[in-house]
Design a protein that fits this description.
The chain has a domain of 61 residues. The chain has seven helices and four strands; from the N terminus they run ββααααααββα. The strands form two sheets. Strands 1-2 form a two-stranded antiparallel sheet. It has a two-stranded antiparallel ribbon with strand order 3-4. It is elongated, with a radius of gyration of 32 Å.
Length: 184
């Protein structure tokens, strides 16, 4: 040990904890704090992003995952946290079940909406006007919805699926309007 060390109380640069230095240029109370402060620098973050994408990282991960140490660690963790894992699995399965059900409902509602549009398109609408309706949908502005001025299935009034019954509305306005006719 060096005898020329000026022992004095200092504050750690990382955790601000008070410590007595072991060397003259010591800035951290422990190696843990030193590593922690190094990992917060921008250079380290850039290096880690590149390392994370590299083949070397993937190889070390797969090597560890296939090792006996990793398998034993996983067994111990699963044994010690059995109840927690059970609850997490239940939540996950419930979410997955709801996703499947929701996607089936979405398909059903989309089919209903298409059928309603088809029913509300009059026979006298020409192919040219149907083409213009398609164009109207395709070139809608960002963050806008195509809305029917007179709703297709309103409570008080119902309109047709024609070009002169369509308008662009922002998403919030369209959700607020819902299935109503806001007469002027």
């Amino acid at each position: 040990m060096n005898n020329n060390v000026k022992r004095q109380k200092k504050n750690c640069k990382c955790c601000n904890k008070e410590y007595i230095n072991q060397s003259n240029n010591q800035k951290y109370c422990s190696l843990k704090c030193q590593n922690k402060s190094i990992r917060t620098t921008d250079n380290y973050k850039i290096w880690y992003q590149n390392y994370y994408k590299s083949e070397k990282y993937k190889q070390t991960q797969s090597k560890y995952k296939n090792s006996d140490k990793a398998k034993n660690t996983l067994k111990i963790y699963n044994f010690n946290n059995y109840e927690r894992i059970k609850v997490r699995r239940k939540k996950y399965l419930l979410i997955e079940k709801n996703k499947k059900r929701k996607s089936k409902l979405d398909v059903f509602h989309n089919a209903l909406r298409k059928a309603r549009k088809r029913q509300r398109t009059p026979k006298w609408v020409s192919k040219k006007e149907k083409y213009h309706i398609k164009i109207f949908y395709l070139y809608r502005p960002k963050n806008c919805h195509v809305d029917h001025i007179l709703p297709l299935l309103g409570k008080t009034v119902s309109g047709f699926h024609t070009l002169n019954n369509l308008q662009y509305l922002t998403a919030t306005d369209n959700v607020r309007k819902h299935n109503k006719f806001l007469g002027e």
